[in-house]
């Protein structure tokens, strides 16, 4: 049987407590077989070109997130190896017999796609809220992902891309870019003062988009100076470097700085893109009375919110954002990146991907040490297949 190299985690051979990183191993070459798997009529075989390494992947690298989901789903599938990865661009090399009929996707098409493979049957899917599907699989977590040269994927969540409009390396980032588009679409940003807490790639995209959507003052906040330098290059008007603390309460220094920057009012909109308990309390504290807080950062465990009633007394509106709206978010993402006049695509390429210098690593040269080093040096890295 044909085999291909993939970046994986294996519950038996690696073990959650006894390993870190992605483990490169040979896996079976995926194939469509409609007789053996009737669902393959709606699947495609993709040749992956680039894959993005996301914050979630870094969490799995360090064995900090999704332990249960990975283990439970592997047990259900009666196997031990999970192929990781969920941000991709690739080419369709084989398509199930119903794929073109239902989705208009053909062999030879270049595609990216949503990492949340939704069921299409639950209440939320049926009413067009697939981002909160009650029975979804997530690529690279609860079903095999795309950190391999070839991957078999359900065609349902694929999005056709045009490299003359968006370069392939950036098409590989449509999934996280879409997280920022989805977050920004929750609120009106014209004329608003905005804070972005957490300037990893998705926070960086949020800075770019908030500016394009008309925010007049964007304050970028992070604990890493390098991220803040990038946020500035992307259009943040002000940056605030937070010191790393253990307390969960809002940071009084940040609150004071935000008051100075907003004539004592607080920001109109806060995007919480980091996840820690303290960051959520920062978001609630720095948002003005009547303002809006978009909660995107994810962290396991219980949170403590001192004086929670303040959020009510202040009349805050809170939004939880997960994934992307399929496909409204994708449509908006494509437009924002294709429009050459807004400079967004160019800035992503130049300042986040650093024009591919040192940020794009061929799978063939994968080693744990090399990846660890590149992930420490750059907010975003891609794997080239
Ligand atoms: Zn991701
Ligand atoms: Zn569903």
UniProtKB/TrEMBL annotation:
Q: Which Pfam families match?
A: ADH_N (PF08240), ADH_zinc_N (PF00107)
Molecular function in Gene Ontology: oxidoreductase activity; zinc ion binding
Positions of the Alcohol dehydrogenase-like C-terminal domain: 201-336
Report what the protein is called. Answer: Theronine dehydrogenase
Q: Which domain of life is it from?
A: Bacteria
Gene3D superfamilies on file = Medium-chain alcohol dehydrogenases, catalytic domain, NAD(P)-binding Rossmann-like Domain
Q: InterPro entries per the record?
A: ADH-like_C (IPR013149), ADH-like_N (IPR013154), ADH_Zn_CS (IPR002328), GroES-like_sf (IPR011032), NAD(P)-bd_dom_sf (IPR036291), Zn_alcohol_dh (IPR050129)
Domain Alcohol dehydrogenase-like N-terminal, which positions? Answer: 44-161
The record's PROSITE patterns line, in alphabetical order, gives: ADH_ZINC
Instruction: Please verify whether the record's keywords include Magnesium.
Output: no
List the keywords (alphabetical): Metal-binding, Oxidoreductase, Zinc
Looking at the keywords, is Metal-binding present?
yes
Name the cofactor(s): Zn(2+)
What SUPFAM superfamilies does the database record attribute to this sequence?
A: GroES-like (SSF50129), NAD(P)-binding Rossmann-fold domains (SSF51735)
The UniProt entry's sequence similarity note says:
Belongs to the zinc-containing alcohol dehydrogenase family.
- Native organism is Candidatus Wildermuthbacteria bacterium RIFCSPLOWO2_02_FULL_47_9c
């Amino acid at each position: 049987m044909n085999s291909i190299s993939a970046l994986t985690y294996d519950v038996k051979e690696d073990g959650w407590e006894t390993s870190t990183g992605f483990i490169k191993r040979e896996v079976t070459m995926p194939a469509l077989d409609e007789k053996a798997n009737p669902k393959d009529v709606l699947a495609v075989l993709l040749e992956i070109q680039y894959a993005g390494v996301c914050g979630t992947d870094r969490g799995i690298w360090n064995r900090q997130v999704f332990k249960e989901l990975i283990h439970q789903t592997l047990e259900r599938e009666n196997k031990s190896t999970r192929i990781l990865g969920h941000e991709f661009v690739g080419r369709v090399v084989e398509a199930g017999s119903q794929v073109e009929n239902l989705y208009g996707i053909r062999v030879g098409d270049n595609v990216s796609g949503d990492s949340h493979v939704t069921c299409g049957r639950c209440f939320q899917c049926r009413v067009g809220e697939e981002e909160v599907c009650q029975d979804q699989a997530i690529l690279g977590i609860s079903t095999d992902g795309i950190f391999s040269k070839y991957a078999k994927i359900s065609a349902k969540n694929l999005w056709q891309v045009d490299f003359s409009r968006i370069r392939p390396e950036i098409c590989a980032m449509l999934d996280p870019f879409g997280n920022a588009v989805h977050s920004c679409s929750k609120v009106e940003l014209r004329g608003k003062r905005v804070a972005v807490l957490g300037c990893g790639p998705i926070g960086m995209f949020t800075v770019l988009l908030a500016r394009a959507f008309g925010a007049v003052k964007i304050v970028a906040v992070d604990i890493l100076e390098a991220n803040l330098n990038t946020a500035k290059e992307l259009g943040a008007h002000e940056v605030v470097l937070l010191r790393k603390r253990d307390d969960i309460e809002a940071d009084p220094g940040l609150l004071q700085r935000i008051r100075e920057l907003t004539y004592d009012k607080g920001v109109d909109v806060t995007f919480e893109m980091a996840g820690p308990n303290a960051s959520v309390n920062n978001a609630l504290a720095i948002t003005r009375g009547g303002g809006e807080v978009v909660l995107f950062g994810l962290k396991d465990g219980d949170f403590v919110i001192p004086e929670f009633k303040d959020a009510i007394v202040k009349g805050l509106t809170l939004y939880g954002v997960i994934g992307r709206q399929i496909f409204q978010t994708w449509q908006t993402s494509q437009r924002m990146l294709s429009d050459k006049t807004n400079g967004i695509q160019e800035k992503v390429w130049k300042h986040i991907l650093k024009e591919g210098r040192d940020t794009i690593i061929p799978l063939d040269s994968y080693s744990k040490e090399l990846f660890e080093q590149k992930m420490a040096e750059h907010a975003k890295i891609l794997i080239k297949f």
